[in-house]
Automatic annotation (TrEMBL):
InterPro entries: Glyas_Bleomycin-R_OHBP_Dase, Glyas_Fos-R_dOase_dom, MMCE/EMCE_epimerase, VOC_core
Gene3D superfamilies to which the protein is assigned, alphabetical: 2,3-Dihydroxybiphenyl 1,2-Dioxygenase, domain 1
Keywords: Isomerase, Metal-binding
Domain VOC, chain residue ranges per copy: 3-126
Top EC class of this enzyme: isomerase
Native species: Variovorax boronicumulans
Gene Ontology biological-process annotations: L-methylmalonyl-CoA metabolic process
Protein name in the entry: Glyoxalase
Gene Ontology molecular function: metal ion binding; methylmalonyl-CoA epimerase activity
Domain of life of the organism encoding this protein: Bacteria
Catalytic activity, EC: 5.1.99.1
Amino acid sequence: MAKLRHIALAVPDPQKAAKFYSEVFDLTIVEPTHSPIADGVYLTDGTICLALLNYKTDEAAGLEKGKDWIGTHHFGFWVDDLDAQRKAIEDNGGTFFMDLPHDKKSLYYEMKFRDLDGVVFDISEGGWVGARK
């Protein structure tokens, strides 16, 4: 069974947002992230990873929203089998968006998809920092 364990918000100032969420909801700040597509901060409630991300380019954020868009960007499911889950997604009309990082052997490798309405979500066998399966 898939488990919802990751939510990402596009924010203009990840540090400021992390301070807010950690103080208001007692989330733990796990670590910063500095990837080719975004800078941000990962937080956790002990089960779910909340990623607060500032995207560097319109392409990385999704061209229809752009890097300056603020809001819920995507969420993720921790799955047992990436290939089987990808097949189920695509068989039901979902479309592949990108994988990140591009090295599929990375612990935090994930595949990003769009649902029928264009909402971005990702799947991972390794999960996300701060999340528990």
